[in-house]
Amino acid sequence: MRRRLLGAGADELSYEIRAIVKKAEQIKALGQDIVWENIGDPVQKHAQVPDWIKEIISDLAKQNETYSYCHSKGVLATRQFLANKSNSLGGVQISPEDILFFNGLGDAIGKIYQFLLPTARVIGPSPAYSTHSSGEAAHANDHPITYKLDPANNWYPDMEDLYNKIKYNPNIVGILIINPDNPTGRVYPLDILKQFVEIAKEFNLFIITDEIYVNVVYNGVKAYSLPEYIGDIPGIALKGLSKEVPWPGSRCGWAKFYNRDKDKDFDKLCTTLENAKMLEVSSTKLPQLAIPKIFGDPRYPDHLKCNNQKIGQRSKKISEILGEVKSIYFNETQGAFYNTIVFKEGMLKQGQKLQIENPEIRKLVEGWTADPEMPLDRRFVYYLLGAKGICVVPISSFCSDLMGFRVTLLEEDEGILESTFRGIKDALEEYLG
User: Fold this and answer.
1) pTM of this prediction?
2) Domain spanning 8-47+301-432: CATH superfamily
3) Residue 433: what pLDDT?
């Protein structure tokens, strides 16, 4: 082309959670059945949306008004409903005008980073969720800036690492918290969340919380929402329908703005996001109309409780299978749909392999892993895919120096769940010797 089309940040746009599917499809074409442990889609893993929720959506689809435009910020009655739910938690209060709808949280995340100055950085956790780390890095034309989560300490954040990176990088303007966390499944206690706020207050930062899993908790823990601990710090809480209903195909997420009046620059960011959505004329209407009807239904709390209990039981089963493997760090999860398994230092080496019976698949995997510069956890993931047909995601692709892989806790079929994780255990033992 006459001039270069893309900035350096385009190279940061990667999503291994989906990219691994291309490899799995090649192996599937050679006759290997695939167990999809790469992505958090409950419906794909045999979850059933309750009939009463389907009936709500069906009834709305029959109403002519459902097909019209709605306000670009979102349906007013739905924003009022969500503001009331937020205000019932206590803490910082908001109005419907402090809520803005997006076409899924991916849209929200992309727009938040898009309108920041390239030099204004948001520090996030590592291992990172790819949508956040890639979007933030792409806007800055640089690598993402992260603080460490420690697998040897229940995946809690390394607050000293966070503090020092903020102190010595004046370009950092915000802190990202994912709670419950993806990919680790950790739910942060209130005292840790308050430490984030103290750091933000000291350095005059805002906070972003990704709370898509805030109602997906189990094993006796509570997940706190941003208004319960943010105090007078400006912040944005991100929520959506995809995980807890579950309705990932709805592409419906929303942002809640807290303490807009505390900082003029933060208020201007919120206004800019609102103006950007105004240019789209209308937000996605059908799922918004369904929100008060689903969340306000007396059956919804029992729906959440039942689903969370099942996920908690799966976390226990996975712990039974993998918890005693000595070569890995294993932490039983408390929230979200995921567990991140990390290899202890020195366990991964060049040349390690799994036996693959199918010669075509073996040749394919050997070709993929021939690059000596390939991260060693990705090498294991490719061999696991070829030998066992289990599709997981390497943790090195989550903007992390750690070596490991992420699995889901979504499989509803108990037989498939057990065989999958016993297959992973067998693979670990064979691969590591």
Assistant:
1) 0.94
2) Aspartate Aminotransferase, domain 1 (3.90.1150.10)
3) 83
